[in-house]
Design goal:
- This protein has 508 residues and is an alpha+beta fold.
- It is built from 17 helices and 21 strands.
- It has two domains: 248 residues, Aminohydrolase, N-terminal nucleophile (Ntn) domain (Glutamine Phosphoribosylpyrophosphate, subunit 1, domain 1); 187 residues, Rossmann fold.
- Bound molecules: 1-O-pyrophosphono-5-O-phosphono-alpha-D-ribofuranose (PRP), glutamine and magnesium ion.
- 1-O-pyrophosphono-5-O-phosphono-alpha-D-ribofuranose binds next to helix 12.
- Keywords: Glutamine amidotransferase, Glycosyltransferase, Magnesium, Metal-binding, Purine biosynthesis, Transferase.
- Its cofactor is Mg(2+).
- It comes from Linderina pennispora.
């Protein structure tokens, strides 16, 4: 998952960079590998700073001061395609036509085809292995075809209409045309989120406009009239007007359900579903399942969350079961999310660095640990052991999401079935691998109901990691086999040398 934003200020003398930078701080949980901002100022000149690292590492005060201009695009990266190279940090830029900048959240499922097309037919040079650079060049190629000296909104709609036909997979995009304005659009299935809002300009004249992956950004920056960009919709904000059109209305709209389980911040609302409330309800439904399965044999003394994301579900679960809730694991606030870190060894070490079990909350007790999900089992395996080390008697483990048995191809880096601990195991086998006395997984229908109750207009979600049903029909067995070969941890470790490539973008 990545985080994206774009901002256009009504007053051309104000600087967008401060709030773009702030937006990245608020979206850091969506990508910890790279960060970048491109702004556009006087005479349509673009200013860029991007590279590998957390937001706090990439942007020094001096670098921020150099990013002048009243509009811009920003990005935090969690790679799902290409390599971890600095050169794949976003936003991406091409000079022709007009000067285009793009920030992409998602993953294209037909990138090989697009790469071939851009090379052989469109004759566009692609400098990295990133799928986002391909998306940018498809957009650029389609804009080029309009052949205009100066483009207008209709030309942009036409170019994105073409892109919708050509790019398959998941993409929420923020873009900027030099001197013209900013654009936000979402793939026709609405797999990845994007919100849009406005606020009165502090200059007293007109409105500022902003796009962001999550509503928390717009809330924090005092934007009002916040709404979701609709699947297949394009919103263009120029210096003079806001123009929007829903170019494609797909039969199946399928926002990624993993946003509600794990990715999004709890204080965000995505597609009219408040993430925190959905998580609370996941806890209620999971409690019902545990009660039904354990019946009179229920011997749990205490419910303990696995910080951070599971807290909401665990709290409500304990309430529903009438059991005490205790924060038995203390979290080191300076260690980021471990699931989105690259490489199993790094993830494993960081679980230990991040969470510390407090003996007083475990000693001689039967504990129920609650997490939002079990993916590779890295976290659960480590913390079950920690709980035992400090004297827990029995350790039960419950997951607010169902067992994850299939790869993700839409922007979460879970490409390899072999790495998923529940891929070919039943619940008791998973319990034994994790070292738990018993595991409980949420039922998929319950997870869907927890989210859908807040917006019944959404008939489907992308639940592919649980049921193997992919909303784009190009995800075949052959595709998944290839993905496994190219992006498993082992494959990525072999290509790790690429991480040193700076390419055209040198911030050092
Ligand atoms: O089974 P695994 O492969 O370990 O993946 C699942 C775990 O990873 C995530 O935590 P993470 O530390 O990334 O973030 P959090 O602090 O937001 O919970 C998630 O919340 C689970 O705890
Ligand atoms: N997680 C994402 O949204 C990743 C975006 C893009 N596929 C990349 O790897 O940079
Ligand atoms: Mg976690």
């Amino acid at each position: 998952m990545c985080g994206i934003s774009a901002l256009l200020l009504a007053d051309p003398h104000q600087a967008a960079v401060t709030e773009l930078h702030e937006s990245l701080g608020l979206l850091q949980h969506r990508g910890q590998d790279a960060a970048g901002i491109v702004t556009c100022g006087h005479k349509g000149r673009l200013y860029q700073c991007k590279g590998n690292g957390m937001v706090r590492d990439v942007f020094t005060p001096q670098r921020l001061m150099a990013l002048s201009g009243y509009m811009g695009v920003a990005h935090v990266r969690y790679p799902t395609a290409g390599t971890p190279a600095d050169s794949e940090a976003q936003p991406f830029y091409v000079n022709s036509p007009y000067g285009i900048v793009v920030g992409h959240n998602g993953n294209l499922t037909n990138h090989s085809e697009l790469r071939h097309y851009l090379d052989y037919d469109a004759h566009r040079h692609i400098n990295t292995d990133s799928d986002s650079e391909l998306l940018l060049n498809i957009f650029a190629n389609n804009l080029q075809r309009t052949g205009k000296f100066r483009i207008n909104e209709q030309d942009i709609f036409t170019a994105i209409q073409g892109l919708y036909k050509e790019c398959r997979g998941a993409y929420a995009v923020t873009a900027m045309l030099a001197g013209f304005g900013i654009i936000g659009f979402r793939d026709p299935h609405g797999i990845r989120p994007l919100v849009f809002g406005r606020r009165k300009s502090s200059s007293g004249k007109g409105y500022d406009y902003m796009f962001a992956s999550e509503s928390v950004v717009l809330d924090a920056l005092d934007f009002t009239d916040v709404e979701d960009v609709q699947p297949g919709e394009v919103i263009i904000v120029s210096k003079f007007a806001v123009t929007r059109r829903r170019l494609v209305v797909e039969e199946v709209i399928a926002p990624c359900i993993f946003e509600y389980v794990y990715f999004a911040r709890p204080d965000s609302t995505i597609d009219s579903i408040p993430v925190y409330n959905a998580r609370l309800d996941m806890g209620v439904k999971l409690a019902h399942k545990i009660r039904a399965e354990m019946g009179d044999t229920m011997d749990i003394d205490v419910v303990i969350p696995v910080p951070d994301t599971s807290r909401a579900a665990a709290l409500q679960l304990s309430h529903e079961l009438g059991l005490p809730y205790r924060e038995g694991f203390n979290k080191n606030r300076y260690v980021g999310r471990t699931f989105i870190m690259p490489g199993q060894e790094m993830r494993r070490k960081n679980v230990r660095r991040k969470l510390n079990a407090m003996a007083t909350e475990f000693k001689d007790l039967n504990v129920l640990l609650v997490d939002d999900s079990i993916v590779r089992g890295t976290t659960s395996q480590e913390i079950i052991q920690m709980a035992r080390d400090v004297g827990a008697r029995k350790v039960y483990f419950a997951s607010a999401a169902p067992a994850i048995r299939h790869p993700n191809v839409y922007g979460i880096d879970m490409p390899s079935m072999k790495e998923l601990v529940a891929a070919d195991r039943d619940d008791s086998e998973v319990a034994s691998v994790l070292g738990a006395d018993r595991v409980f997984f949420q039922d998929l229908d319950d997870l869907v109901a927890s989210c859908r109750q807040f917006n019944p207009r959404i008939k489907n979600f992308d639940t592919s990691v649980f049921d193997g049903k992919y909303v784009t029909n190009d995800v075949t067995k052959e595709y998944l086999d290839n993905l496994e070969q190219q992006r498993s941890d082992d494959a990525k470790a072999k290509g790790a040398a690429d991480a040193d490539v700076i390419g055209l973008y040198n911030i050092k």
